[in-house]
User: Which sequence fits this backbone?
């Protein structure tokens, strides 16, 4: 018998596919538009949300029986704000330049609809283990979309991945640039992120017709 039951496994896998928080629930889409011009920023934001949502879900689950209903939103905000401060301070200590790139968007994790939604919809009604799996699953679903969008935006917009040139030198016209290819500056603009997310949604619904709304 495995460590995870079938239901436990679905808590992780469903947000990666047919119940993705960005493409299906349409939550947390603002950061997908704002910080995905660089793959590194997309990855770090995904890791940050993974930590905040995974740990936050467990904390809220442990406290669920002692939180007065009238102040539960305030308590949830305090928990997520504390975790976000930890993430922000770690980034400033070990990746200062990246922390400046992400700037206010790390702080805005506090108001990320995915996190508050999982606190309210799942952690308040389930045990710590299931809440942890739910948090990890939804955070991974969020991170996967950010990484896909960041990959294409940086590659086609700057010709780099993680800041490393992969298509050649656009000035000396080496690599693919020798064929006349030019970086697409439009890829670095927020509207292009929305277009890529739209294409992901189209592919997802093409593969699973049940996701298409009447």
Assistant:
């Amino acid at each position: 018998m495995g460590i995870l039951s079938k239901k436990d496994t679905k808590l992780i896998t469903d947000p990666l596919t047919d119940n993705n928080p960005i493409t299906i629930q349409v939550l947390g889409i603002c950061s997908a538009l704002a910080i995905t011009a660089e793959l590194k920023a997309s990855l770090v934001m995904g890791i940050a949300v993974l930590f905040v949502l995974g740990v936050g879900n467990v904390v809220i689950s442990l406290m669920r029986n002692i939180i007065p209903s009238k102040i539960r939103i305030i308590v949830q905000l305090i928990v997520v704000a504390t975790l976000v401060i930890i993430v922000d301070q770690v980034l400033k200590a070990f990746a200062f330049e990246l922390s400046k790139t992400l700037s206010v968007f790390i702080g805005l994790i506090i108001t990320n609809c995915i996190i508050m939604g999982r606190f309210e919809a799942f952690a308040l009604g389930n045990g710590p283990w299931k809440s942890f799996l739910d948090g990890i699953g939804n955070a991974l679903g969020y991170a996967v979309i950010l990484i896909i969008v960041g990959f294409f935006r940086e590659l086609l917009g700057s010709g780099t991945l993680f800041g490393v040139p992969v298509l050649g030198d656009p000035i000396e016209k080496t690599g693919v640039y020798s064929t006349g290819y030019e970086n697409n500056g439009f890829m670095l603009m927020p509207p292009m992120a929305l277009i890529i997310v739209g294409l992901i949604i189209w592919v997802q619904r093409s593969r699973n017709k049940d996701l298409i709304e009447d």
